Amino acid sequence: MKSRFWTLAFASVAVLLVLPALAQKTLSADFVVAVVNSEPITNSEVQSAVHRVTEQIKAQHQTPPDAEELRRGVLERLISDRVQLQMANETGIRVDDAAVDLAEQNLASQNEMGVDAFRQRMVKEGLSPTTLRSQLRDQLTLIRLREREVDARIRISDQDVDRALAEQQAANADPMAQEINLAQLLIAVPEKADDKLVSELQAQAQALLVRIRAGEDFAALVKQYSNADRSKNGEFGLRRADRYPPSFVQATLSVQVGSVSDLVRSGAGFHILKVLERRAPSALARSIVQSHANHILLRTGPELTQAAALSKLTDIRQRIASGKTDFASAAREYSQDGSAPQGGDLGWASPGMFVPEFEEVMNRLTEGQISNPAVSRFGVHLIQLLERRRVELKPREVRELVRNQLREAKLEEAYMTWTRDIRERAYVELREPPQ
Asked: What is the C-alpha separation between 81 and 165, in angstroms, rounded?
């Protein structure tokens, strides 16, 4: 788990669009620390990236690794990104200003401010608009390179989907693959106990079982009578069934969650087992959460600037909040979308139906909440989430979901292999700091 966390942290070095509040700082004298195909990486670049990653780790309430380990990981990430950017440039990938504009608008929207205000904030924190846009362009370039070189090559066949569904069905039918949380009350039997003592202890355990089934508190009886660990009321914790004694699993196979088993005899004594929780092994999702939302869309252009649209929707939002109008009436009056006659009603939507910049804002809302103005490629929106619901998927939809899950898993593996391959083919010279 730890290694994956640092991998994700290092991967975010250049992703300034999710780290808007972190300024670049030159923390020591500048010099070249690496050369990548004749292109230098400077110490100030590494120090700045280390600073951003450290701040991100702290914001997630994690403990940063050793300073030298972090620096090595960050430098390797910068080298990998530099190799990929060079490859993108050589193979003709270009990101136009309109795409960078949209990325900057989304970043400002995520911080609930206009682009001008966001740029002013970045300047105060030491990041010029030119540098920010340059880094956003680099990130978009890396995304397009990955889409072309890795994503487009991944294919998931119908046989792959069939195999995944069959494996899941087999795992769900295997009791040893389930996860169970059991608690026990143990009446211990001494190693050399005679038959009379064994019978007495069994009778004591049976009497306790009768009391539990009559409604007495299991945890209280554990604390009073159990000869096993009582620190967590006899709870073992959630674990795979194959990590329990087979007799425990067999005794609880047909026991409902919240109920107790018959007596289980082991070398330690007589056990009463309570099933606290039971989970099927990493079940494939067979349902999704749909969202029902309204929106007001103002399309930007020569007649309506983005700043004016943001201002107008902010005013509309305030009028709705104060009760001077309602969302549906405002949508019918102002929205420039086909949903305006229906009060902006978008109906029930499954994940992926809207563009990402719209869906990300909608997904952060609670039922009844209205967003701040949000920028998308279509214009500026005001979004009201009405309600959410979970719906069962049809067999065809389940297969498509499984296909997407398999694709994501293959993408991650293929991407790591691809980055390692092009990194190994690049000329990289690491340099020691000057004395």
From this structure: 37
